[in-house]
Amino acid sequence: MATHGDDLTPGPTSGPTPEEARELLGHLASDEEAVRYPPISAWFFAVQSAVVGALFLVRLLPSDDASRATLALGIVAVLLGSRYWFNRDGVSWATAKLADMVPFLLVLLLLAVGCLVVDATTAASWVWAVGAALAAGVVWRTGQVYRRDFGDGA
Amino acid sequence: MAREVPAFDEVIHAPQRLRICAMLSGARQVEFSVIQEHLAISKSALSKHLTHLAEAGYVRQERAVRNARSRLWLSLTPEGSRAYADHVRALQAIIMSQEA
User: Fold this and answer.
1) What is the reported pTM?
2) How many domains does chain B have?
3) ipTM field
4) Which of A108, B41, B70, B82 sees the fewest Cβ atoms within 10 Å?
5) CB-based contact B42:A53 (threshold 8 Å)
6) Which chain A residues are closer than 8 Å to B44 by Cβ?
């Protein structure tokens, strides 16, 4: 990208060509992503996948215990996400684009709903164990793709 | 050949200022040093760009002390967010005009 460094003069009054505009938009998207999506270590996704898997497994516990465990696991997930992603050093409340998150959230939601339906209609509570493995796999796979696209914060 | 420019904002049209706005659009606040490191420009150059953006009412600067260190936090104002979004739309319009 052609940068002006210390140049404080306005840009040229004639606009960029379509090719220049396309290139510029690409660079701007990259600058936005540097803030929205930081490099994140593999351990972060390993822990998050374990937490998400555990969120499914706690459905096998008695109701009261399941509620307490769900709350505790939710807090762990939120705190980790906040510390290493959204409120990391030098950035306050990074804003991930909802459109980028929808496929991931939708898959987890469908898994949870699927497990709920099977459990409620067939009493096959073991389905939560299958759901836990699948959900953890989804988080881990998403982490692999994320680290490939945005870097590994090792 | 000169071409018509759809609503380009002179204040953020300069590449570095545009890139600063792009980074600030990705979070509620970003620290000065994060932007400086990413753009790889000098402190004085970044300060000048920020002064320009702040005078236009596009960027807010807040100083905060954390871990005994003074940090300068930056954020886009609503006007700055609008100006940046309009500028991106203008760039997209240029691309679409070619495809039309």
Assistant:
1) 0.82
2) 1
3) 0.86
4) B70
5) no
6) 6
